[in-house]
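Continuing the batch. This is chain 6 of the set; chains 1 through 5 are on the previous pages. Same settings as before, nothing changed between runs. Recording input and output for traceability.
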Amino acid sequence: MNRDRSLEVPIRHLLCPQWSFVLLAMATVLFAATPLLYAQSVNPLEGDARAIRGGAGLFRAQCATCHGANAKGISSIEAPDLTQIWSQRSLSAAAVFEIIRHGIPGSIMPPHSLTDTENWMLVAYLQSIAQAGVVGLPAGDAAAGRLAFVENCSTCHRAHGVGESLGPNLSNVTSQLSLERLVASVRDPDALVGRGYKLVQLRVSEGEEITGLIKSEDAFSLQLQDDTGRLRSVNKSELQTVERLPGSLMPAFVRTQLSNQRLFDIFNFLQNGAQQ
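Output for chain 6:
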C-alpha cells in the first residue's frame, strides 16, 4: 500500500462488473485457499470522508449501471447486492480489495489496474453503504467490559459518560467501525491513526517541548491537547520547530495484556453501555 499517494489521484478506468452470487462465492473460496499478499489486512481508509467521496464518484461513474445507483444489484443481469457482501458473505476488506484487483477467474469480472489508494477508496465506499458497524459481535459481559474499559481505556477515551476526552469518544464506535477494524485499532493502533489524532511535538522559544494533538489552528496560533489531556494555546511567533510524529499516542494492547475475551467484553459495553 502506497500511503504517500494523495487521495486526489486520477481514477483509472474501471469496467463495470457483472458478478453473480455463485461466482463470487467460488472466488471467495479460491482466495481463502490461495496465499495472498494483501496490501493491508484492514482498510486504512475505512470511515475517511474524502476517500468515501472519491470511491462514490468512481462507483457512480463505472459501476452503477450494473449494480444500481444504490449498489443493491440488478436482478435481470444477476449483479449482486454489494451492500450485503460484508454481513451475508463475511468477506474481509482485504478479500474485497483482492477481488477488485485480480477479478474473478473464469468470469467476466476482470482484474483492474487501480493504485492501492484508489482500490481502498472504492472499498471504503462499499463499507460506508453496507450494513454499518459491528456484525456478529462475539458474546461478552458488558458489566465486566465497563470495568475493563475504566481500567484500560478511560484515561484517554470516553464512552457512555465514563472517561476522558484526549482520544475519540467511543460511545457509538460499534455502529461506525467493523469488528475487524476495532480489533486492529487496539492491537496495532500505529497502523490506523485517524485524522485529528496524529501526534506533533512543538518546541517553543523558552525551550519547552510540548507533545500532543492539534485541535485547531489559525494564522497566529495553534490549539492543541497535550499528552496529559490539557488544552493549550501556543502563539506561532513563539514556535521554534513543529515536528509531526509517526504512530499513535495510544499504546498497543497485546493479548497478554488484554485477552480477546476481555476485549469482547469492552466491545459489548460500548455497544450496550447506554442500557447499563
